[in-house]
Amino acid sequence: MLNSDYRDILSAFADAEVEYLLVGAHALAAHGHPRATGDIDLWVKPSAGNAARVMQALRQFGAPLGQVSREYFAQPDVVFQIGVAPRRIDVMTSVEAIAFEDAWPERLEVNLEGIPVPVIGRADFIPAPLAGLGRNNVLASEVHSECHTDSQGVTRFTF
Q1: What is the Cα–Cα distance from 4 to 117, expressed in whole angstroms?
Q2: What are the tens digits of pLDDT across the range 1-12?
Q3: Residue 20 vs residue 146, higher pLDDT
Q4: Looking at the 3D structure of the chain, how many domains does it have?
Q5: CATH number of the domain within which 110 lies
Q6: Alpha-carbon dihedral of residues 140, 33, 12, 66, nearest 10 degrees?
């Protein structure tokens, strides 16, 4: 069950046709491995066109944008946080070790309470970024124990 903030931000992203992937613990749950978390992680494609849609969605949601401009979401390595745990929303433009363009075609499309949500694909789960953007926590140890490195040297999570 989504809290109202998560439902509203996902609806706003869907309405604005934002290109994004649900990552982190909520994505893990979408793949059948639920775990408690204090936030929702949304990885947006860092491009000029998508950044405009992200800003539209954040305005619709009512996010406190202050001095944030759409250029902010067109560049890599940005994390924009809204609220505090257990209802925090993290909007990021990068995760470690994989490009958005590589993860997008492998996404899983799910329906969460009537909202279409693109979720990072199983093969693209990467321990460090999806375990709280590099923080050492329970998910990191769970994921690490089930990882393998493929023939191209890419570390992948196996369910």
Answers
A1: 15
A2: 789 999 999 999
A3: 20
A4: 1
A5: 3.30.460.40
A6: -20
